[in-house]
Amino acid sequence: MISTLFHSHLFLLILIGMILWILATVQAQGNVSVGDFLSANDRNMTWQSPSGDFAFGFYPIQGEKDRFLLAIWYAKIPERTIVWYANRKSPATDRDSKVELTSTGHLMLKDPKDKELWRSESLTKDSQVSHAAMLDTGNFVIASNNSANIWESFKYPTDTILPTQELDVDGYLLSALDETCYNKGKYQLRFHEGSLILNQIDMFTGKPYNNYLSFETGSRLIFNKSGHIQIQNSTGSPRNLAPENAVPKPDSNYYRATLDFYGVFTLYSYPRNPSGGEKWSVLWFRPRDICRSFVDSTATLGNGPCGYNSICELINDRRPNCTCPPGFSFLDENNPYTGCKQDYTSYPGDCNPDGSTNGEDRFEFKPMSFADFPFSDYGILKPATELECRQSCLLDCSCAVAILQDPTVSPDGNGTCWKKKLPLSNGRFDRDVIDRTALFKVPKSNTSRTNQATPNPSNENQNQVILILSVLLGTSAVFNFCFLVAISLIFFCLYQRRLQYLDAIPSRRDLETHLRSFTYKDLEQATNIFKEELGRGAFGTVYKGELPSSYGNYVAVKKLEKFAQEGEKEFKTEVKVIGQTHHKNLVRLLGYCDEGEHRLLIYEFMQNGSLAGFLFGVLRPSWQRRLQIASGIAKGLTYLHEECNTQIIHCDIKPQNILLDDSFTAKISDFGLSKLLISNNTRTLTGIRGTKGYVAPEWFRNTPVTVKVDVYSFGVMLLEIICCRRCVEVEKEEATILTEWAFECYREGIVEKLVENDEEARSDVVKVEMLLKVAIWCVQENPFMRPSMRTVTMMLDGAVQVPTPPCPFLVDPMI
Ligand SMILES: *[C@@H]1O[C@H](CO)[C@@H](O)[C@H](O)[C@H]1NC(C)=O
Ligand SMILES: *[C@@H]1O[C@H](CO)[C@@H](O)[C@H](O)[C@H]1NC(C)=O
Ligand SMILES: *[C@@H]1O[C@H](CO)[C@@H](O)[C@H](O)[C@H]1NC(C)=O
Ligand SMILES: *[C@@H]1O[C@H](CO)[C@@H](O)[C@H](O)[C@H]1NC(C)=O
Ligand SMILES: *[C@@H]1O[C@H](CO)[C@@H](O)[C@H](O)[C@H]1NC(C)=O
Ligand SMILES: *[C@@H]1O[C@H](CO)[C@@H](O)[C@H](O)[C@H]1NC(C)=O
Ligand SMILES: *[C@@H]1O[C@H](CO)[C@@H](O)[C@H](O)[C@H]1NC(C)=O
Ligand SMILES: *[C@@H]1O[C@H](CO)[C@@H](O)[C@H](O)[C@H]1NC(C)=O
């Protein structure tokens, strides 16, 4: 009883299920009569071909709710494969749209408000519509009462052709925009001047660019029933485009040939009786390398498969993978094929009228192997060294990337430098190009940008400094003491952490230093066996050498005389650190020699000698020039302290270590060497570095040495620059010590006394006082009271106000 009930229920359930299934998938497999329609609302309703292979109807668009495409697709293949669609201009329609076969012989697509969205054109006139049908070939036809068809989808292909479909001399395929968007794409397959070609089209006008691929001559493209793509001219027989054996098992596969959205014309196959998990397999495609094809053909212009400023690399041997070079990001994050844009925007004043850039110290280079941008060059230097290449691109405000051919691997031993400007086109990775490096010019992370372009954020910092200073000055001594101790601890910890951090990342630099290694013999020759001595410093003697470089015909060769015993590795490391510095206010290191006991450094040669000779010489340099020099030195020190990869404390700032080039630009020399002399790794120095008169007082107190020692020395030197006298002059009686005298003059309001015989400076007494105040801030005995070099730079440039400085001298209870 129970089982009978169960069985009858089961039977009922199955029956209801079948009815529902039949209702749900009403698919007209026969003829479509006049007046029949399909609604997007009921998309289970389709017009299918007799075998059920193809369906005509509304296809939901991926990722867009209630938006449909009037399309033809493979009905038996689970993978979405659309072979035709209506209305390329705006293919998507809403859910209440309808398509109807009208008595006039048109397929008419209307939106819910009865507005016509698309209609099929008529191929023939004067004929009566009989019916329409989805054929097993994938062709949807509207048949007339005679044998001719009024309309066929095969005559209006989109991006795909199917077996038995032909493309005549006026026909063309147009790719879709991307994988899920069926709007007009960028590529076209068509006949042009008697050949089948592939070309890109201009997105704005639809006009074709030059072809990037030309197939054989012909005037008809035939996709024959067995899956062979053939081309035929008016006289000859069809010739296969793909090799005959590329197309297997004629009858057991579906075939289609699609102009994919990335510009590749591909022949695909799919088994007719799938066993599950199949995918469309690629039988043949052209061009072989879409990333190269724009370069290797006449279509050198156009934006290429990845758009402008991007890099194309083939994946799966066929599809382009688009990436953005360093300093660029995708125009449209969701579509990597649209190209890339530069991350930073230049600011007015980046480019001088002569095309050079003001912001040279804002940029650095990010190297990338294998990347190339054929045909974007506007300048070629040959022969060129890496240094010349970098320099040329750095100073040129048009230059976005330089491609350097390594001289050591180039066949003729001469390097080449290709300078390229925006937009970069046809970028690609080419693993075959092993001798080239692309150097991308990118703004430095956290650079002097703030100080040069947008002073506002820095102003905030400055205000904070002033705030801290005012707090310090305005509170009780006990509080001050605690506060100072706390700050010292914080600074000390930060400093230690920074050092640890820097120690942990030494390897990255190798890429970025490009120093030449010289043999000792080279240098003996260059200096005529160390004949002409230029100077003698803490580290050794400097000789003049003749060695043509990009910086002139002469070099300065520094022979290091003392360095720590463990110096072997240390030397290389320090040389690398120095080699990475690039700033117009630093003397450039060109190379080094590390041979046995010989350690030498080769620098660019400075025409005008040191600031000391200039400042304390017979002819007093002009006030304006002195101001420029002071500001230049401050910038150079800011760079050393805050902007280069590894923080560098100079430890011996004095006029003898500031050199002047032929245009009197100040350049700091001798930096980065102090570590070579310090064997104590804790970096709390026991031995005093620096020069009497310029040394910060903390050297004598066995406290950690920070960048503030340089600020102190800079302050002393700034006073010398103001007064054009040395910091200690015994014969000057009560004015022996410059710092004391200068503060005395300031306190008593007799600033002009400092520039007594200097007409030019006396007429600019406001500036003199400003510089004096900066100097007094810098020579504060308490290192934490001293401003950073960045703040000093801003003060000197007038970007921030200089607050009234306190007395620089601590009342030392020991005295
Ligand atoms: C479709 O209509 C045509 C002409 O009326 C007829 O010859 C043909 O057999 C019909 N096909 C189907 C599948 O009904
Ligand atoms: C279409 O058919 C599926 C199952 O075949 C069913 O789940 C769905 O509700 C149907 N949609 C419409 C609009 O009839
Ligand atoms: C088809 O229809 C047209 C227009 O009604 C008519 O003139 C023509 O004679 C018809 N042809 C046939 C073969 O029935
Ligand atoms: C299609 O072309 C191939 C290669 O030329 C040929 O072998 C085959 O017979 C052709 N098939 C048809 C149906 O014409
Ligand atoms: C047409 O193709 C044949 C080969 O099939 C070739 O010999 C002939 O020169 C071509 N004619 C033209 C006009 O290109
Ligand atoms: C494309 O290239 C990028 C960078 O080389 C890589 O990370 C990514 O995996 C590649 N994408 C594919 C699909 O291979
Ligand atoms: C390399 O450049 C130098 C300097 O211009 C030139 O003299 C030399 O001939 C070049 N070498 C070759 C192989 O071209
Ligand atoms: C740049 O600044 C940001 C925040 O100001 C900081 O998080 C980041 O570590 C800095 N990067 C470098 C390389 O200094």
TrEMBL record:
Pfam families given in the database record: B_lectin (PF01453), Pkinase (PF00069)
Positions bound to ATP: 559
UniProt cross-references to CDD domains, sorted A to Z: B_lectin, PAN_AP_plant, STKc_IRAK
Annotated GO MF terms: ATP binding; carbohydrate binding; protein serine/threonine kinase activity
InterPro entries (UniProt xref): Bulb-type_lectin_dom (IPR001480), Bulb-type_lectin_dom_sf (IPR036426), G-type_lectin_kinases/EP1-like (IPR051343), Kinase-like_dom_sf (IPR011009), Prot_kinase_dom (IPR000719), Protein_kinase_ATP_BS (IPR017441), Ser/Thr_kinase_AS (IPR008271), SRK-like_kinase (IPR024171)
Enzyme Commission number(s) from the entry: 2.7.11.1
Signal peptide residues on this chain, from the entry's feature table: 1-28
Residue ranges of the TM segments: 465-495
PANTHER family reported for this sequence: G-TYPE LECTIN S-RECEPTOR-LIKE SERINE/THREONINE-PROTEIN KINASE SD2-5 (PTHR47976), RECEPTOR-LIKE SERINE_THREONINE-PROTEIN KINASE (PTHR47976:SF105)
Protein name: Receptor-like serine/threonine-protein kinase
Native source species: Durio zibethinus (Durian)
Phylogenetic classification of the source organism: Eukaryota, Viridiplantae, Streptophyta, Embryophyta, Tracheophyta
